[in-house]
Model the fold of this input.
Amino acid sequence: MQKSDGRIGTIDAAESRFAFLASQASDETVSEVVTIKAVTLNADTTAIELEQPLAYYYDLATISIYGNVALATHGETKKEVLGSGNASRSFQNSF
Done:
């Protein structure tokens, strides 16, 4: 934990010993990128298990989660044949 004067320290106490306050409109917006390990769908809830712990605590009333909804390659090059046409013929179709 970094203190306001720049010093770094830790607190060894139960979570129940802290009072978490709702976020304010003037609070700094924070975000982080994480990898999802597993998703469990139940009747009323969705549980998301992450590969690593979050760096921050978030106010559940104001949190937004964005993510890929399909398999994605993150821009890696893939060498795949796209179609089987003849490049020397124009206006080809599959009919």
Remarks:
- Residues 37 and 51 are 5 Å apart (CA to CA).
- DSSP finds no helices and two strands in the chain.
